[in-house]
Model the fold of this input.
Amino acid sequence: MSDYIHLYSGICGKALQEQPGDNDMQDHFKILVVDDDALDRRAVRRGLHKHHQGADVQEAATFSEAMEAIHTRPFDCVFLDHHLPDGNGLGWLVSLREGGDNTPVVMLTGHGDEKLAVEAIKAGASDYLPKDDLTPGMLDHCLRSALRFHQSQEQMRRAQEDLHLRDRAIAAASNGIVICDARQADYPIIYCNPAFAVMTGYPAAEVIGRNCRFLQGPETDDHGLQQVRECLRAGRECLVVLRNYRKDGSPFWNQLTISPTRGAGGEITHLIGVQTDITEQRDAEDALRLNVARQQALLRDMFASVTDGRLTLCASEDDLPQSHTRFAGPVPLSRASGIRELRRLTMGACEAAGLPDERRYDLETAVGEAAMNAVVHAGTGTGHVFTHERGAVQVWVEDEGKGITVEDLPNATLRRGYTTAGTLGHGFKMIILTVDKVFLRTDTGGTTVVLETERVPPAASWPFA
Ligand SMILES: Cc1cc2nc3c(=O)[nH]c(=O)nc-3n(C[C@H](O)[C@H](O)[C@H](O)COP(=O)(O)O)c2cc1C
Done:
């Protein structure tokens, strides 16, 4: 009985209230009236035309005519009588819906036929209208409410399809995906996709309701976790790489992004974590780094030995020598300016440090060469001049070019006249020959060359010359 009350209050409430935008509704509706009673069909047709002169109203008197009509062309709405000579309206409605046809249907019911009305709504009718009420006003309102109902049903159907599609995409993703509830204490997992289970070895049933920290272990870096905590506190996205552990205890590198999602009021409701296992990539990078470090160490020894200790290959900034007392600089270097100035300042420093003429000219020439290399290969550079009270001059030339690869280093430094883009150019061997000590640090972020010459030449003999 409550269904009836609901239906009646629904139909009357909807029918008698004008909705915003109703006047914008198009007039050229295509309507099918299915009724074996010609008078009733005419009443519906006339009533509809009263408010919608442009409406295209087609009539069907039997079940089979109705079937043929609906399969021939689409309709915006069907007014459907229950009693048909070759079947019943409800059966027709059921077969229509089973065939996937969502055309809005208004069921025409007899007086006191509320039971049928309920059945019709359950079977997918948008509305119903007692035949006693076939007035133009009621027909118009019924049509409008059926169309509005259909529209919202369609929107809901599309939204559900989208959701279903998204669910399938998440389930099929090769990255691990977890969704955590941000409104509950300690952000418990409320969903994880199959890839998460494959990556970590934990099935969904074992992780739902838990915080993701169960993936951490002895080598999980606290710096990365600190980043996660800060982002969660600030409600920001975050990207970190964490050392995590599978259920079987084996470690893996987890590249984790966490993105907050917000509710209508802007509050964070959920946190979505996407996990990518980058262990193989990390291992390859580590192996490469180790290889480069080994090669550099070999080269360092080789350079030191063939240059009698004059050339030191520095693996990092920490290996560069201590700078002395600043005499001049920074001097910006470019093709147009700076090189001559750096040479002049070097000569001034040599004079201040008391270097003999010949040693001054050697250092000045080497500095010019190093500065030229920087601007040729990196476009620009910077020079600094330092002195030491024991009677030494030290000149730094830095650039931010792409550096010299380990493979190119021997040729770039030791071969006379060797010059290609990305090397130190033709003058480097000359530099080594004319100053007491050269320090070289180079990587993809730039190159630093430090030249040192003392008042008195070093005693050691140098077989490289
Ligand atoms: C959505 C989401 C996904 C997370 N995924 C991981 C993960 O895969 N591995 C991990 O070690 N921590 C993950 N965390 C981080 C931990 O849950 C926790 O926030 C972190 O350990 C810092 O908090 P704590 O200091 O309370 O442990 C995730 C957090 C969130 C919100």
User: Anything to note?
Assistant: Residues 385 and 406 are 28 Å apart (CA to CA).
